[in-house]
Amino acid sequence: MLPNLSPVRHEERNYSKSYITVTKKFWISHAFALIWTAFSIYLSVPWLDSLSSVVPWIAALLIIGGIAYIPGYMNAFLLSSLLLDRQPKYKNERPADRVTVLIAAYNEEKGIFNTLRYVAGQDYSSRLKVIVIDNDSTDSTTEEVLRAKEELRLDIQLLKEKRKGKFHALNKGLRHVRTPYLITLDADTLLHPSAIRYMVARLQSSPDDVCAVAGSMLVRNSRESIWTRIQEWEYFLGIASVKRLQGLYQGTLVAQGAFSLYKTSYIREIQGWPDAIGEDIVLTWRLLGKGWKVYFEPLAAAFTDTPVTLRQLIRQRSRWARGMIEGLKEIKPWKQPQIYTKYLTGINFVMPYLDVVYTFFWIPGLILALFGIFWIVGPMTLFVLPLTLVSYGLLYRYQKRYVFENLQLHIRKNKLGFLLYILFYQMIMSPVSVLGYMQELFQLKRVWK
């Protein structure tokens, strides 16, 4: 999926005139998910009886619940929500409000110039201000930024921050922001030419209590290794589907630091980015905790480099899992002011349980199944798969027609990556997430990159 430097020719699609409120969508989706779960429980009674002959009944229920009941319920809720989702039209596709782009950079000499070149190529109506914060780099990051300032038609301000930590760098940049909106952008992320325009257009088309908009992240380096090939589908289908679900219910749980738009005054009101390994997660949850809303804009596309090796992937995803726990420790789901965010953060609250069950029961159960022992993994576990495939099929169609066609992008052929993503990826991600939970439990040293 390569960035296209052609401006967007956005096609308006004619949706049905009937309107279903967000609240109705929420409860309709819940009803479908509960019916599906009840049906699953009914069919699984023999499986529960069989497993409870090996372990206590309550243990059997917890194992099957983590493997089938809750994942099935979540997939059913996701599927029905995606079917009901309709992206609202923009009030103005050509906003011109002033925007500052914050880029925290640590040893980014290889990519920072290219990132700034794509910022300079935006079709935004107003001139952009860019603040690059060099977070004590030991390479030629500063020289590359100064070269961009000289060669590109871009208003660049370079700052230095000696204290290690992305939150330190972003907070220093925040003190120099003089515009109503600010964007955080990773130093290795390339923007589609219309990304900022669509991001600001979505925020300006939203209610006043919307404080941030998360952009749509896609994989740029998907041909570098088998791991990037798998992550291409994770970003294109998995992460995008979760973002759409959360955006529909006005509570996108992570306005990711890689590319998101914020109202500057709201960030200042919560005193900037927190001292956390998942600073963007905790920041977003603080915003939601104030009763504000966070949206998602699928047309605001950005292309990022994902981990190339398994070791790099493990470090990144364990850091994400740890950041989620940091957010849960600070703001409990039941303390969120809105029902949608209570529910969405509540899903995150049960994720450690699901990852633990998957790691310590499903994976060993799969090994037993290979020898004909179906105590844990058997035919019933495949019952979740149809909903997963249908939801991915719907999202693929949406991504292709609404996002990629409008952005004049092409989906790369990557059948092997898709197969590995569907069948094996979770076997790696759940143990890695458990590792992240343990790192936070024992307060091990934080590592930014």
TrEMBL record:
Query: Does the keyword field hold rRNA processing?
Result: no
CDD domains in the record, alphabetically? CESA_like (cd06423)
InterPro entries, sorted: Nucleotide-diphossugar_trans
Q: Does the keyword Phosphoprotein apply?
A: no
Q: Which UniProt keywords apply?
A: Glycosyltransferase, Membrane, Transferase, Transmembrane, Transmembrane helix
**PANTHER family under this entry?**
POLY-BETA-1,6-N-ACETYL-D-GLUCOSAMINE SYNTHASE
The name on file for this protein is Glycosyl transferase
Q: Which organism is it from?
A: Mesobacillus campisalis
